[in-house]
Amino acid sequence: MTLEADLSCLRQLPVFAALPVPRLKLVALMGEKLHFDAGTLIIAEGEKPEGVYVILHGALEISHEGADGTRARLSLHSGSLIGDVPLLSGQAYVGAVTAKTDVTALRLPKDLFFELLETIPDFSLALARDLAARLYRLANYTLHGEKVH
Known about the structure:
Strand order of the largest sheet: 1-8-3-6
Shape: globular
Low-confidence stretches: none
Distance between the termini: 28 Å
Order of helices and strands: HHHEEEEEEHEEHH
Structural class: alpha+beta
Number of strands: 8
Mean pLDDT: 90
CATH topology: Jelly Rolls
Largest sheet: 4 strands, antiparallel
Number of domains: 1
CATH class: Mainly Beta
CATH architecture: Sandwich
Helix content: 40-55%
Strand content: 25-35%
Radius of gyration: 15 Å
């Protein structure tokens, strides 16, 4: 992908849509573009986050194997953020993150992520809304067993 393609992809995500163009370019340029082949372990369960991943293309799976051998799975797709919750909460990843398909991601170092939160109120608000929407979907699924988009 070119810089213009990266900017276009980021601009489509609600969290980044409100960023001024110079800040969006900063995110695209300071982020580390990564490619993962399908089946690649991206993050090990229990690992501490060093940044946030923006999934530009592809699908991921977060999984956790229980002591009884059962495996819980959560699928995520293009446009998803990975690592923001453990980074903000100071916790480790609760599951392993694996590429289900070939994945292209932009890894934002934690310093850049926190700088965006501290200096751009619209980014902070967009992230808060995104987190609230994810929490709502999780609560609804937990209580009702239904997916809400």
